Amino acid sequence: MGSILRWYSRNLKKHQFAMNMVTTGTVFFIGDMLSQQAVEKKGEEHDLERTLRSVVIGSFYTAPAATFFYNSVDKVFGSSQSPFNALKKIGLLSLLVPFNIVGYVICNNVLQSKSLDYTIQQIKNDVPTIIFNGYCLSIPTQFILLTAAPLKHRVLLGNMVRVLWTCYLTHASNTGTQSGVVGSAKRDELDE
Known about the structure:
globular, about 80% helix, mainly alpha
């Protein structure tokens, strides 16, 4: 296991964006697999296209954004891992959560060729609940990452928590949030 982490660290130093894209794509793969198999109990009716969409969004949208944001926040506030500095960084990162979630929903719907009306309706109905749940998980996670994790490992360590978040996110963005404001019947009507 130590040799794998050394290999990962060495390559992360040389190819930060590429390694984060591979890692995050893998996390989104695992998250969607968990969502479909453990939460939605799809069994053999697993939607492989949905899983591939999740991998593409994770690799080409989420990973570059997360890498850019972590690097930028460290440049703005410095690399100190003090609790006060972490709180400043969390404040800035918290402002970005809604944009990240809306971006995910838009990417997911574009890759499914969903209509603009459908996407707007989903953003109005589902995204507020997703954002609230995102804050419940991301704020404590970010505090731990920003006070304890070295910059180069933040995306990797964050991805460990992100497996659970991705499981929820892929479920909520593909089936509606728990509030039921956009259930599958409504989704079909909007899509027509």
